[in-house]
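Open question from group meeting: does this chain pack into something compact, or does most of it stay loose? Before anyone orders reagents, we agreed to write out a predicted structure and look at it together. Recording both the input and the output here so the notebook holds the full record.
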Amino acid sequence: MGNKNKKFIGVFFCVWIAGLLTPALLYAQQAPDTIRIYDIPEVTISERYQTQEVRATAPIQVFTKEQLSSLNVLQVSDAVKHFAGVTVKDYGGIGGLKTVSLRSLGAEHTAVSYDGITISDSQTGQVDIGRFSLDNVDRLSLSNGQSDNIFQPARLFASAGVLNIQTLTPQFRKGRNTNLNGSFKTGSWGLVNPSLLVEQKINDTWALSANAEWMSADGRYPYTMHYGNQNDSTSREKRKNTEVRTLRAEAGLFGNFSDTEQWRFKAYYYQASRGLPGATTLYYDYASQYLWDKNTFIQSQYKKEFNRKWVFQTSAKWNWNYQRYLDPDYKGSTGKTENKYYNQEYYLSASALYRMLDNLSFSLASDGSMQTLNASQDNFAAPKRYSWLTALAGKYVNEWLTASVSLLATVINEHTHFGAVAGNHRKLNPYVSASFKPFKTEELRIRGYYKDIFRLPTFNDLYYTEVGNTGLSPEKTTQYNLGITYGKEINRFIPYISATVDAYYNKVEDKIIAIPTKNIFIWSMVNLGEVEIKGLDATANIILEPLQDIRLNLSGNYTYQRALDVTDPDGKTYNQQIAYTPRVSGSGQAGMETPWVNLSYTIVHSGKRYVLGQNLSENQLAKYTDHSIAANRDFQIKNIKTNLRVEVLNLLDKNYEIVRNFPMPGRSVRATITIKASPRPSPKEREKRAVYGY
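Structure tokens returned:
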């Protein structure tokens, strides 16, 4: 490594540490009797009904914690299936890989944000959303294009869409210092899933939270094996090599110095060991491959509102990933395949918001990051990627018009320890969106957006042994969207209804695809693909209160997509639907709240899909519909609140596949008990409060 690179890394590391820890150092020395007390610990915006989806200039879909509890879902990946325009590739079972593609653009084009800071994977470009539990999630949202929030890190401008996971922030009842929340889930196929959340109020400025979760399952669910090209015979088998064990632990420190100044610090750890079930091909379902994952990160966010016009925020993150893959039955001379990968990132972001007028604001955000990948393989390239992103954005809002515009500048430099290196990149990408309200008395809006964006080739695309191609260009995407939204509060019996309809057109150029080279076992990545995507997303929600203590929540979405390969007019896949993209899909939810018991029903539907680009009958996967039901009830005993929940998943025991030869589980049962408590402070603690006034 040259002196120039060493100097850059040293300076970046020092700045990153400063961004991570400075707010804590500034306030750690305050004495208790100098703490300023505010009635509002943080700035929050709330509405009686969720209207963000209706008012947004670009489509956004949101699930609150209460809505997530009625979806009959265990992981984030299960909940995402209920968003419109989403394709989740699910390789089956609790431990199977799960990735999300937004409007058929590919998983690499969808960013995943955790508490406002993106989760990156420069090795594959795809984040496994099956690893995220919902136990500590407060809000889950999916934005197409980008959200209306212009005051955010530059990296959140740099993708075709963003899945944002917002975790819980400690909230305390008056006179309480501690919150305890424990849950235990168990169910079919050996599921054991305990979790514990502890929140502690230190004083009116500081609060702590700690959350841990363990999950174990054998995953040996039954499925139907089909034999012969015509599926003329079948047998009942059980999935093999499906065991999974995961551990997730998080700790957070929350500093609310005033209603205009906050700091958040989070440490995260995740590990998983799981068997990789094989494809259930003719007379064969044996698998012995195993995968171990470890991920840890620490991240810090600081926000300061200096006055009505100026707001500043900064974020810093260190992320480390480890992955070990083992195939003990490899037939080569070594007798096995064992690869280890180490992925690391340093990330720093700063942004400022300037409110020029009450309805006109501008923001400037700049992010820097360094990503590295090392592997146990001989002569591995060991690439380093230095990224610098700068976003300038503006937003105008009045009673009838909301408009935003942004310009993203990207600078990428790459280096390798061994072998050829990919080219550097310089890009400018614009975005513009608007929402128009034609009628003063009706919440009816017409909206649209345009976005030009790209995604870089991943380290695997560029440097994977005998496959990577360092000459790859970025995969470019152009997005257009035109929609109409409506929301209205009607009367006591129908408190609220809303609906959105969006038509869109996406075009992907220089699509990165794999093609065989020397033989069918040696492939290479090339820029050959071009895809045109035309589609329609529709969502609807209605709240009914037929009786005083009875409440019904009904919602659903529908998606129609024509995602066609237009690469080569003479090719066999020209003008045919791309793999694993259904023309028609949708989902629905129904929930009923009563004083005695709460009931919920969910349905997920997917039309037929093709496993290859050639839309032949032998490449077709059948459509499927998955129904689930649940019932839960709350019990209150003094200061302890208990909830019992029972779910029946895949109620009709449908045997279906999302990815060919990877069958999904049939009917299963899951039970959950949750206990929440807020103990009263001890007499000594109450005396301390009286002395220090908090």
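Observations to bring back to the group:
The first helix runs from residue 3 to 27.
The longest strand covers residues 522-547.
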